[in-house]
Design brief:
The complex is a heterodimer of chains A (about 425) and B (about 290). Chain A is of the alpha+beta class and about 425 residues long. Chain A is built from 18 helices and 14 strands. Chain A is globular. Chain B is mainly α and about 290 residues long. Chain B is about 75% helix and about 0% strand. The chains are: A alpha+beta (about 425), B mainly alpha (about 290). Chain B: It is found in: Cell membrane.
Chain lengths: ~425, ~290
Amino acid sequence: MRSKITAVSLAATALTFMVSGAALAETQLNALFMAQAAYSEDDIRAMTTEFEKANPDVKINLEFVPYEGLHDKTVLSQGAGGGYDVVLYDVIWPAEYAQNSVLVDVSDKITDEMKSGILPGAWTTVSYDGKYYGMPWILDTKYLFYNKEMLKKAGIEKAPTTWAELKADAQKIKDAGIVEYPIAWSWAQAEAAICDYTTLVSAYGGDFIKDGKPAFAEGGALDALDYMVDSYKSGLTNPNSKEFLEEDVRNVFQNGDAAFALNWTYMYNLANDPKESKVGGNVGVVAAPGVEGISEESAVNGSMGLGITSTSEHPDEAWDYIVYMTSQKVQNDYARLSLPIWASSYTDPAVTEGQEELIAAAEKGLAAMYPRPLTPHYQEMSLALQQGIQEALLDMSSPKDALEAAAENSGLE
Amino acid sequence: MLSDRKTLHVWLLMLPLLCVMIAVIGWPLIDTIRLSFTNTRLVGSEGEFVGLHNFTKMLSSRNFQRAFSTTMQFTLISVTLEIVIGVLVGMLLNQKFYGRTILRGMLILPWALPTVVNATLWRLIYNPEYGAFNAALLKLGIIDQYQSWLGQPQTAMMALILADLWKNFPLVALIALAALQSVPNDIRAAAISDGANAFRRFRYVILPYLVGPLMVAVVLRTIEAFKVFDIIWIMTRGGPANSTRTLSILVYQEAFAFQRAGSGASLALIITLAITVLAVIYIRIMRSWAGGTN
């Protein structure tokens, strides 16, 4: 009896060791994503589950934060000695991340197949100073969405191709009493406002920085803010835009309270879904307009990439995960809320079917993508500009004065 | 001898707590002081000694001065309203009426709610497109169309104060209620039979019992309000046009968004100093009050 008990306990002990041994062999990765626009949380979880199935020895803990928390959370965890292996990052951060060694340089891991297959514009998302700090994942820009039914009611036959035309169309819609405030934007004191502003800066051919100094208080960049203020004061823009983020814009638009809206790719299929939206089936999309004599269309580079943190203890597994997430197959399978980085996907019926309008808009928009400045002082400059834009909208100062004050506060001089 | 042993006992019992406090408060504080004299960045290499540069730069910057006045405005208005409304509600709940116990229980709900939840709720309430606040005011005929409460500098601060007030007046009300229950009934009865009117009864009979506990509430609430961060960060992120950017938000941006740990630390120390000054003033007032009544 006694020996039986001993044998059983020995077996139990051995089993415990085996189980814990197996647990030790499993690699845990922590990945930080955002819960806002582009791929939904459900999509990212589903992609990750598929990766885990194919790689049973890797377990991935996902964490989602709002876009507004993504940068600070990444930097803070890095300052505290790490925590994440894979982080999602915006196109505006590689300069700062590279300078502060937040991300690993993966230039030698990028294959020729990746280089030739991925759209050139996408690579700008992850490169700084000739090096690659990850893989592009979300290829996005702001598009002009419009309510087809409202345009038709106002006798407008096609979507506007210039910002002046947009203004005239919005006036027609307002005058016809179809909707009180025809245009919705995301002008809250956040990065979202800078994305809308950059779209207009690209249309007016403006510059953010020239010779290392802020240049946004003149020329096209000043014209861009003038346009925003004019649109706001003339009552064509929903006055609540100055507290809207992207999701507020989507809500207003899909509630039928706006004829035009500037937003990211993800809004197209959501606003066109009758289950989600009151205007389902009536949503049109084009590349954001241009300015006569200056540009055909306008666009901001709002892309995002996936990178490995320099504190990660499992950079190889992290890279496998990134390669999987950015692979053409995965991107084609989940192309409803975010379009692929791969050039050939845009002619693949599996991707284009049912969203031909979006693909057509993307072909023009993605080619026109205008970068926000690559500077390690980006956060400071952006915040100063956000304040300047809001001061001008609120009539606290003229657009020129507001931008000059922003230049002074930008940390660039 | 016995008292020596007792002292030793007390210190021995306090030792674990002291160790924890030194580790989680003492060391970070000393490190913050050290950082404030350097130009260290949050991530990357250790900075160099820059003397008082961070302090002079901060104190002379327009952003600091504006944030300081915003913080003072928030603190003064919200704490005053919390005290007034808290005392009134406390007095109301001290009356005998049917359902009093349930109401007293419900009073604690807003205070027990996490600030993040409270802020998110109020953001929805103030929503310019479908918010309940707009709907209520429109139905009452106070406004003729929906307003962007958090999108206008003039209204954003008041909207934030209202949200903060809703969450924090219960604490003051509870403290006031507890203090009111200690007012002896015979003194109240004597005051009534002496013909004192309601105001005089409040001023000379009830207030002396309230002042001490209320001072504690004022100190606690002032310190909390001066440090306010979460409710503002969620509702306006300091906007519109930085009109609701308080000192704590400025510290956060300086240290974490712009990654200037050195000047962020100097700003944090300036705030700590300001709060210490406020606390000392309150304690002086409390002492003089206590001395006066004795």
